[in-house]
Amino acid sequence: MKWMEEHHDVTQDGSQDGSQGDSQGGIQDVLQDGELDDWIEKQIKKNPKITAKELALLSQKGLSTIRRRIAKLPHIQYVGSGYSGHWEIKK
Questions:
Q1: Structure-model confidence comparison of residues 91 and 34, the more confident one
Q2: Residues of 73-83 as b/e, b for ≥16 C-beta within 10 angstroms?
Q3: What's the predicted TM-score (pTM) here?
């Protein structure tokens, strides 16, 4: 029982410290300012073959969040299928 209590404390402390440290600085600050849509568009311009999963990893957001935001951007669409497709930005 004591091992579980110690293990739980370490896990809890590690998670809290990691989360707080990761959210300070870097890309996270930009995305917290409501600029996720602009950031997604910029990444797609740099690399039209980038995947939603890669965008999620780079932005430290969930895959569902990235997909939902892209779906709300009518000027960005995926052309082709699967790995052979690419993003297009129409303006």
A1: 91
A2: eeebeeeeeee
A3: 0.64
Assign domain 34-91 to a CATH class: mainly alpha
> How long a stretch of residues is the chain?
91
Nearest CA to 73 out of 59, 89, 58, 52 is that of 89
Q: What is the pLDDT of residues 35-56, one digit of tens each?
A: 899 999 999 999 999 999 999 9
Least Cα distance to 61 among 40, 83, 78 occurs for: 40
Task: Report how far residue 14's alpha carbon sits from residue 20's, in angstroms, rounded to the nearest whole number.
Answer: 10
Q: Phi and psi of 84, rounded to 5°? A: -90, -5
Main-chain phi, psi angles of 76, to 5 degrees:
-115, 125
Please state, in angstroms and rounded to a whole number, the distance separating the CA atoms of residues 57 and 7.
Answer: 28
d(CA 20, CA 56) in angstroms, rounded, equals 19
